[in-house]
Structures are given as structure tokens and as C-alpha cells.
Amino acid sequence: MTSPSGPLFDSAAAPLPPRTNLGMPQAGAPAHGAPSPGGTSPDGTGQPLSPVPGWVGDGYDEDQSAFEGTFYHQVGGRETFRRLAEKFYEGVAADPGFRAMYPEEDLYPAQMRLQMFLEQYWGGPGTYSQRRGHPRLRMRHMPFPVDSAARDAWLRHMRAAVEALDLPPLQAETLWDYFDRAAHSLQNRPG
């Protein structure tokens, strides 16, 4: 359904926070697309990773109380969407057939992009658009073959992620309805 090298989960996105603190970016994190913290640049030059500019103060560190009354806030804010994205990508990593759709060796950058997108969609910080522009989901998925098998695999992993949140039924169903409709709308190949 999604691909970290596809535009929605594009590997050319802005730098990401360190994997030691998935929900709260910190200065000194590795450059986007880089190996684990403390490594060298992914371009093969062996240069040390550069610090992450702009995470603090770019909207991602906003006071979470600013989102009171939104679905984002009602379901638990950043922590809930961090857990959702993390659980989803755990499922992707454990599914060799579906994992093959994700060319990046490290799924963490895609996990962070999904988290930021969902936070914004449900009324949280607008960091996703600040960094990546308008989501344009359908357009960004067109280069990737999303058939019914890919759609169903994506939905299976997302269902497990939603269920792992143990949200009240109405909130869980609200999330699931969105994911089900989005997955079906992004299918771009027959079969």
C-alpha cells in the first residue's frame, strides 16, 4: 500500500529524529536515510552524519494541549500515533512478501513520515505539510503497483496496529474506517 521510497513516504524527506526517542525529535539526530545513529552518511563518502536542523520549534515540539478538542487529542496525541506507526511497521518488517515493496533497508524513516502524516490528518501538528507539502496521496502512490493483494496486506498490518492501541470502540472504528477507505482508494492496479 505504501512505499518509503514513494512520494508519501519519500526517502528524500527532511531529516528524522533519532530512533532512541521516536516521538520527540532531538538535536544531533542522524540525517534522513542514514544508517543508525552514530554512522556515516549514506552517500558512501564516510562523512559523519550532520545534526538535524529545525526539529525544535518547527511545529513538532508544539504544546500538545494546543490540540484539545481534536480527534488527535482525544485518542492520546503524539504517543498514540507513534505507537500506531511503530506497530504497523513491525508488521511490515515481519512480512517478507509485503516488505519487498519497501526498498529502504531501514523502515524507521517511513514510520516517522506515517506518524507525522496521521498526526496532521487527525488534527495534530502540521509538521508533515511543513516538511513535505500537500500529501497528494493518490498521485504519490501511482508509481507503485498497489493491487488488491498489496492493499489487503497493508490493511492487515494496519488492522493489527489499530487493535494494539486498545482504543474505545468508536475511536477505533473511526480510525479503521479511514484506513479502509484510503486503502481502497489507493489501489491502482487490477487484481
UniProtKB/TrEMBL annotation:
Entries under Gene3D superfamilies matching the protein: Globins (1.10.490.10)
Name of the molecule in the record: Hemoglobin
A matching Pfam family: Bac_globin
Family stated for the protein in its record: Belongs to the truncated hemoglobin family. Group II subfamily.
The keyword Kinase appears for this protein: no
Residue sites binding heme per the record: H184
Keyword Isomerase assigned: no
An annotated Gene Ontology molecular function: oxygen binding
UniProtKB keywords: Heme, Iron, Metal-binding, Transport
Origin species: Zafaria cholistanensis
Comp. bias intervals (Low complexity): 25-48
Region feature Disordered, mapped onto this chain: 1-60
